[in-house]
Amino acid sequence: DVEEVYTWKLPVPTAIAHRGAPYFAPEHSIPSYEQAKAIGADYIEIDLQMTKDGVLIAMHDKSLDRTTDGNGEIHSLNLEEVKQFHATMSTTGTMDNLQSDVEIPTLEEIFQHFGHSVNYYIETKSPYDYPGMEKELLKLLSKYDLLEKTDENGVPKVIVQSFSQESLKLVHKQEPSIPLILLIDQDFSNISDEQLIEWKKFVIGVGANYQKLTEAQIDNLHGHDLIVHAFTINDSETMKKYIDYGVDGIFTDHINLLMNLIEEL
Ligand code: G3P
Ligand code: CA
């Protein structure tokens, strides 16, 4: 048998629906991801937290307080307790179509719901607080046949992102085929070329706070063969500016604005 080779390519700019489409439905809920899919995002972005009984759920914060009708730290609650509450909150601004009583989804429920019909850009959040979260993520990716897969355009079904190098290294060690993005929330002028060479050993690029990122730094990252996905840009003018600077992708709460812009390119 000829061994199948897993190759992929990313569109430029890659359109990443940050927390789904949180202007249309509560962030990190199935309706929010549904809306992002309908608008045509390349990826739905999912932040992960882990319950006391070891279940991965989609949520940005470590506690339920901001985005749900409940309270408490997720690591101290079992899934059954978390499931009593609902996703209720947008990231930002006014929502015209806010739905109430929306379920807080587990990662498994998201995979069951969307299957291979979307691409997933998954963040291991607070991995120090959740030992084993990478293993659980990889188990689910395997169970839902999401490893070494692309969509019909050759775009990888899954990218994993984290602010934690250790978390990404754990994933890389176990599944080197998964494209990884290291999130950076600091000024790139403080990051040496040696550091970039080190990162390139396990990641395909960086997710960078656009407010701390210059055009020259984007060029330098490209010079090290690292792609650059900028977070989180929510207005068309700034999106256009950073596309002109050469970023390879954008995280946005307003995926509709980004898709409109990409259509005009
Ligand atoms: O994952 C990219 C961006 O989402 C990082 O910031 O805090 O929104 O997860 P945060
Ligand atoms: Ca995130």
Biggest β-sheet strands, sense, barrel: 8 strands, parallel, barrel
What do the pLDDT scores average to? 94
Rg from alpha-carbon coordinates: 18 Å
What share of the residues does DSSP label as strand, in percent?
A: 15-25%
Write the H/E string, N to C: EHEEHEEHEHEHEHEHEHEH
- The end-to-end distance, rounded to whole angstroms, is 43 Å
Q: What proportion of the residues is helical, as a percent range?
A: 25-40%
Shape: globular
- Per DSSP E runs of 2 or more residues, the count of β-strands stands at 11
How many distinct folded domains? 1
Which superfamily, in CATH terms, is the homologous superfamily? Phosphatidylinositol (PI) phosphodiesterase
CATH architecture: Alpha-Beta Barrel
Report the structural category: alpha/beta
CATH topology label: TIM Barrel
**Residue runs with pLDDT of under 50 for 5 or more positions:** none
- Order the strands across the largest sheet as they lie in space: 1-2-6-7-8-9-10-11
* Total helical elements: 9
CATH class: Alpha Beta
Bound compounds: SN-glycerol-3-phosphate, calcium ion
